[in-house]
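User: Structure please.
Assistant: Input sequence and predicted structure:
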Amino acid sequence: MGDAEAGDGEASGRIDRTIDVLGFFCPVPIAEARKALRQMQGDEVLEVWSDDPEVLHDMPLLLNRTGDELISVEENAGEYRLLIKKIG
C-alpha cells in the first residue's frame, strides 16, 4: 500500500510525493505533511497515508493555514489516503 497507480485519485493521476505515516499519531502526520508541502512546487500533488483518524480534522486545519487544497480523502480498513495539491 502507498504506491499510486496511474489514474488513481487526482484527475491527471500524478502523485509527486508520498508520505507514509501509518502507525504514527498526532502530531506526526501533520508535521510530516507540512514539511513535505514546504519542499514542493506549485501544482504538485502530495499523497499521505495515515491510520490516525485525527488527520480528518487536523489536515483541513493545516491546509486552511497553508492555502493548499485537499483533493480527496479515501478510507479503507482504518487507513486514510489523502491527496493534497500544493498551491503556488
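Helices lie at 28-38, 55-66.
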